[in-house]
Structure formats: structure tokens, C-alpha cells
Amino acid sequence: MSDLTKTTSSEADGADTAAVDTPPPPAVDPRLLVREEGMAGYWNDFKRRIRGGELGSLPVIIGLVLIAIIFQIANSHFLSADSLTNISVYIASTGIMAVGIVFVLLLGEIDLSVGSVAGVGAGVWGVLSVTHHLNDWVALLCALLAGLAMGALHGFFFAKVGVPAFVVTLAGFLGWSGFQILLMGDEGSLNVPSGSIVEDLTGYFFADKAAAYGLAVVAVLAYAGSLLLEAKRRRAANLTARPVGEIVVRTVVVAVIAFVVAYVLNEMDGSRGLPLALVVFLAILVIADFVARRTTFGRQVFAVGGNAEAARRAGINVAKVRIIVFALSGALAVIGGLFTASLQGGPTRDLGGGNTLMDVIAAAVIGGTSLFGGRGKVWSALLGALVITSIEQGLNLLSMDSSIQYMITGAVLLAAVVIDSVSRRTQKTAGRT
User: Fold this and answer.
1) Residue 201's closest CA among 338, 293, 102, 296?
2) CA distance 239 to 232
């Protein structure tokens, strides 16, 4: 071998060795990057989040826009005041039950008993209030306590005995369905008395226009205040915080949405005013969101859902958290069941059956809560319920069979789970999990 060849080979070997021995430059965690100012900063930050698998509510918002366009083209009545008011009332039942399911999914578990628990809760109220003429509020409290007890029982067998949540709640679904039939008796249904609390849940509207506009003002001010308070806390902790310009933009977007909704409920032809159902649903969302994001219990729920063993080692009472979450799911299922009873004129032996369970779980998952635990927001219940209820309303206007509704809802649910799975895989690849 010539000297030239030996020299070249030696240099190549040295280059290879240097390439192997020299470590690659450390990757910068995108979460530590500070977004540049201006619209370019917003756009670059948006692209970075999309590449990292942080889709957020974007798929749901795009889905809602497509649903509105498709059904409005198919039936011009879809975006009328009457139709939109119906949607704002109908989402309460599914949405409230979905809030409870969001907490269960944050644990990485499932609750298959939500429909039958809703039916039993509505039945307890009906038997006590209608049959035995107990005070409406006392009967309502007894129904809520029944929901808490049923949910806590599921949580006990899951957290203390070690029975999988799927099996426990499936047994609960079957057992409570039988009890519901027994509770409703031979007639199988009860009529909601005129003027009762349950009748007003979906039948009462605030006719005064100040109610809807006032709620919009309160919502906007509360949202802006929460953003400012969060930014102040982060700055006090020497963390990056949203600039004032971004807070203003976000507040303006929320204000536009809030006042458009208020206008539709108040001013358009066929408007009936602000529905009580929407007020109750939003109040439950705000309270649940505060519990999930601003309390120790909420942080414990996310910790247990992310890694139960790590949470246990950190000193969290995992069994207690699980029992409380399932009890909360039971109570919210009963509230949703009472809204269903209000819509259909009274509790029945089949209330909570049919596609109730599918709609509730689909609403939570479609809204963005992960089936794998530890990731999601309470407001997912609102977005998911809007998708489900909008599809139902559109198909009803088109007089389509319920079988079509089942297939479309199933396809949307599958798409949501696929998006969640791909998002988690992308985040893992990008080092964000």
C-alpha cells in the first residue's frame, strides 16, 4: 500500500474517531424558549407547538366550524336562533356528565356506570318529590347524595379492593340499571310537576336582555382577571409570563364570542333569552376548572393519572383521590340525569340508556381529554358536548335515522382518539412527555 493511501486511511480513521468521540450539541427544551414579540412570534410559537404535537383545541374548533358549514348548507335553519338556543340547552345534560368523566379520564380510568347512575338519581328525585311529595330541594339533595354514594362505592372497590375500574363500573352499570327499573315501579315513568325545580332546569329562560349581556361582561372580566393574575404570579416566581398584548388579544377574542352568543340568545328572530341550563352548566365548568387547576386535589388528580406509583412515593393518598373522583363523577351524573328528566318531562326506567354513555365519553374525549390519563382540561366537556349536540341537532333537522347519528359519532370519536395517540407519539419524539 502506498504512503499516500496509508495517510488518507489514517486521516479518515481519525475523522471517524473524532465524529464518534465528539458528543452532539445538547438539544434545547422548547418549553424553555421565550417567544419573540409581535405577530411573527405568535406564528413561530404556533408552528413549534404543532410540530411538537401540542394541538390543543384546534381539531375541535375546526370540527365545529365544518359541522356548522355542512349542516347550514344542508338546512338553512341550523344556525337560526331557535336551533342555537336548543343546542345551548341540550348540551347541559351531556356536558355536565362529561365533566365527571373528564376527572375519571385524568386518572387514566373509565366509568361505564354514568348512564345508570344518572337514571337512578333522577328516579330517586322523582319518587321522593312526585310520589311522596317531599320538598323539591330536599329530594334534589337526596338524589345528589345517592350519586355521591354510588360513585364512592365504585371508587372503593377500585381503589381499596383492587378491582379494575372497567369491571367495577360495568357491574355498576348492570346493577344500577336493575335498581332503576325496580325504583320506577310498574308504570316505569313519572311526570315532572309544573313549576318544579327540575322542570325549570331546561324550561326557564331569563327574558331580560340584561341577563345574557351581563353574563357576557362577567365572563370577559373574569377571564381577563385570571390571565392578569396568572401573569403576576409567574413574574413573582421569576417565570416567563404572557405579555400584556397577548392578554388583550385573548380577552378580545373571548369578548367577541361571548357577546355574539348573547346577541343570538337575545336579538335574533326566535330568541327566547338566556337559558338557565346554560348558566348552570357554565357555573359547574368554572367551579370544576378551578378545582382541577387551582387546588391541591386537582394537582393530585393529574399526578395520579400521570404516574400512580410516583404519586404514591410523593406522599399522595392515591386511594383517597380515586374514591373522591369516582364520587364526583357519580354526583355530576345525577345532575346530568336531572337535566335529561327535565327535557323528557320526567324520570323513566330507561333514562340514561341508549347512547347516553357513548355521548358522554365521546364528549370528554372529543373535547381533548386523553384516554391515557394525566392530560386534559375540564373545558373539554364544553367543546365535546358542543360537537355531539351539534351533530344530533343537525341530523334531527335533516330527519335522519338515529343509526346515522351513531355511525357519525363513532367516527368522530375514533378520529379524536387517533389524534390523541398521534399527538402523544409526536410529543414523545419531540421530548415533550
Assistant:
1) 338
2) 10
CA-to-CA distance for 93 and 192, rounded, in angstroms? 16
Average pLDDT, the chain: 84
Report the b/e string of 212-235 with b at 16+ CB within 10 A: bbebbeebbeebbeebeeebeeee
CA of 239: how far to CAs of 226, 227, 230, in Å?
17, 14, 11
β 205-206/274-275 pair status: antiparallel
Return the amino acid letter for 68: A
Gyration radius (Cα) of the chain, Å: 26
> Per the structure block, which three cell numbers stand in for 321?
383521590
Enter the C-alpha cell of residue 316. Answer: 399522595
Look at the block and give the residue holding cell 385570571: 226
Which has the closest alpha carbon to 64: 400, 358, 391? 391
**pLDDT per position as a tens digit, 258-317:** 999 999 999 887 788 999 999 999 999 999 999 998 899 999 999 999 889 999 999 999
d(CA 423, CA 122): 38
Q: pTM for the complete prediction?
A: 0.84
Q: What is the pLDDT of residue 431?
A: 52
Q: Retrieve residue 146's grid coordinates.
A: 345517592
CA atoms within 13 A on the CB side of 16: 6
Q: Tell me the C-alpha distance between 115 and 110, whole Å.
A: 13
Exposure string of 324-344, with b = 16+ CB inside 10 Å and e = fewer, is bbbbbbbbbbbbbbbbbbbbb
Cα–Cα dist 145/122, whole Å? 12
CA 360 to chain centre: 9
**Banded pLDDT at 237 (limits 50, 70, 90):** confident
- Of 106-115, 178-187, 192-201, 264-273, the one with minimum mean pLDDT is 264-273
% the chain with pLDDT above 90? 50
Q: Please tell me the distance from the alpha carbon of residue 433 to that of residue 425, in angstroms, as a whole number.
A: 9
**How far is the C-alpha of 107 from the C-alpha of 155, rounded, in Å?**
12
pLDDT at 406: 78
Which residue's entry shows cell 409581535? 38
